[in-house]
Predict the 3D structure of the following.
Amino acid sequence: MSDTRNKALQFAHENQGKFLTELEELIRIPSVSTDANRKEDMNRTAEWLASKMRQIGMNNVGIYPTGGHPAVFGERIVAPQVPTVLVYGHYDVQPPDPVELWQSPPFEPSQKGDNLYARGASDMKGQVIASLAAVESILKQGSLPVNIKFIIEGEEEIGSPNLGSFIASHQDLLSCDVALNPDTGMISATIPTITYGLRGLAYFELRVFGPEHDLHSGLFGGIVHNPAQVIAELIAGMHDKNGRVTLPGFYDRVRQLSDEERLELTRLPLSNEEYLRQTGVPELWEGEKGYTPVERLGARPTLEINGLYSGFIDPGSKTVIPAYAMAKISTRLVPNQDPEEVHQALLQYLKENAPSTVRWEVIKMAGGPACLTDPKLPATQALAQALETVFEAKPVYKLEGGSVPVTTTMEDLLGVKSVLTGFGLPDDNIHAPNEKLHLPTFYKGIDTLIHFFYNMQNIS
C-alpha cells in the first residue's frame, strides 16, 4: 500500500469528528425539494456544498441553475491520461412528515450510541459528505490518483425532472470514464454490498371527482356514488388474488431472471425474520406468487399506494360524501419496462374499470427506466477490492428495489456506466420518521472511497 494512501487514511481517521460536524451542518438546512416554501433552503444547501468543494481544493466550482433547484459542480483534473470519475449525489431530502413520530427534531441531528438521527442523514447527505471527505483526505497528501468531478443535484427526491436536460446541455463539462453513485446501500454493517441493478419508477396521482362539493351523507347517500368508495375499489382491483398487478400488459416486457441470478440471490443473507425485524409488521405479505421475497424486492415489478386522501380526516366526525378522492400510486419497474407504457396501461385500466358515475384524471409525476450493470466492470472490481480491504469480507452483489433514474440518464447521454454502492443500512428509516446513519459504517465508507480512488488509477 502506497505511503500517500496510508496518509490519506490516517487523515480520515484523525478527522472523523470534523467530518461529523460538517454533516450535521449540512443536515440542519431543511432542503426538502418538494416543498415550495423551502426554495431558499435549497439554495443555501447548494451554496454550502459549493463552499465545501472550494475549501477542499476542487476547481471550477459552480452552482448551475436548472428548471427547478440548482445543481452543484466541481472538478479536479490532474492528468489527461488517468481515468475520470464523476461522483453523483443529491442534496435534497424527503419531507419529515409525520413530524409527531420523530423522537427528536428531524433537522436537528441527534446522536444516540453509534447512530445519528436526522432527515437526510443516510439519504443521502451522509453519502455526499463521505465522498467529499474521501477526496479531501487524498488532496491533503498532494495530488489525486485520478481526475474527479462532482455533480450534486437538488431534485432526486422528486424524480430528477430537470437533471436530464442539464446533463444533455453540459456533456463536455460532465464527460468522464465512469460514474460513482453512492446512493444505494449495504445489506448489513458487516456485509459490504455492490448493487448491479436498480428498478425504474413510474409515479402517478389519481384523482376521482364526484359531486361539485361535499354533500350531506344522510340526504344524498345511496344515490350519489362516493368518490372515496370508487377510488378504494379501483385501487383494490390493481392486484389480483395472486399478488400480480392487473394493469393491461404490465408484465409483457418484464425481464426474467436467469437461473444463475436466482442462485446468486439465494446467497444473500436476508431472511424473513430480518424483514420482520426491520419493518415491524406482524407477518410478511406473500406478494406475487412464485417468487421469493428477495426476488420480489429487486427483480420483480410492483405497484404501491403511497398516499390517500378524501373527505373529512380531522379528529371527530362529519358525515359527508366527499367531492373528490386522491391516491398517489408508484410502480417500480424492472429492465425492459417502459414508464410511458405503464402510464398508458394505467389509463387503460381506468377506462375499463372506472364507473361513469364519476370523473377521473391521472397526473404523471415522475418516471425513469430500470438500470442493469455488469458486476465484472473494471471500476466495479476496483470498488469490490476497496470494500473487501476495509470490511475484511468479500462484497455481495444485489438487485436494489429502489430507483435512481440518473444512472440510465448518464448512460444514455454520457455513454458511461455507473458503479453503485452506499453506506446506509436497511434499518436507516430512509423516507420515514427517525431516519438515521450508522456512524461506524459511515467512517468505513470514507475509507472505502479512498481505496476506490487509488484503485482506479490502475484501470485502463
